[in-house]
Design brief:
223 residues; alpha/beta; Nucleotidyltransferase, domain 5; five-stranded mixed beta sheet; 7 helices
Length: 223
């Protein structure tokens, strides 16, 4: 989806929905929403007022290096090792993934800035920290550890780029949104669902969560 940046320098208008940025008090302010997945993140750049948000860009952010296969599923590579040893063995791959995430976010920020946009922050949805040592099944533990790792590298990438960051648990996300937005949560969900009608597919739960996270950074209570 690298073509999906819909900002025109001469006329600040979203090509898809026709929204004119000049109607906004701060027409160039956007937020990035990221839904962490294994080896990738679903990215959505959101702008617009709270009651009429629009998507400027959506795409998949690669978090693994094809030339380093272990960065795709790092804990699967070492899942037969005792947990303490597995943590040590995965460090090199984890550091490489951190670098990939940081550089990918830098590229996105520079792209948005070159289009005259200002990034207000990033919202990240993914697996929350947990006591992985308590998971007895090695395969299940590998999946859980990768969920935490790929969410965590996005946190670190946002911090490294000095971005305001909010991180949300994927399993508790809907409840968190309801608690923060209150009576407006149903309307917000409906608006974000409707955005998919004017966007190239896909517009799945992952994209919607990323868009919602971006909205919370742009318009929610600042944490």
């Amino acid at each position: 989806m690298e073509r999906c940046l819909f900002w025109l320098r001469r006329e600040p208008r979203c090509v898809i929905c026709g929204f004119v940025f000049a109607r906004m008090k701060e027409p160039n302010i956007v937020a990035i929403g990221l839904r962490a997945k294994t080896a990738r993140a679903i990215a959505v750049v959101l702008g617009g007022p709270s009651d009429a948000p629009f998507v400027l860009k959506k795409f998949e952010l690669a978090l693994a290096d094809p030339q380093m296969p272990a960065t795709g599923q790092p804990y699967h590579e070492v899942m037969d090792l005792p947990w303490a040893e597995a943590q040590k063995a995965v460090r090199k791959s984890a550091q490489a993934i951190e670098t990939i995430a940081r550089k990918a976010l830098v590229r996105l920020i520079k792209e948005l800035q070159s289009a005259g946009l200002k990034v207000s922050g990033v919202g990240i949805v993914g697996a929350k920290d947990k006591d992985l040592a308590r998971i007895g099944n090695f395969h299940i533990r590998a999946h859980a550890a990768e969920g935490v790792l790929f969410r965590r590298v996005l946190d670190l990438a946002a911090d490294a780029n000095s971005l305001h960051r909010r991180t949300f648990s994927d399993r508790e996300f809907d409840e968190l949104v309801k608690n923060e937005v209150g009576a407006q949560s149903a309307a917000l969900k409906r608006k974000l669902n409707e955005l998919g009608r004017s966007l190239p597919p896909p517009w799945r739960t992952d994209e919607k969560q990323a868009a919602t996270a971006a909205w919370l950074v742009l318009h929610g209570r600042r944490k």
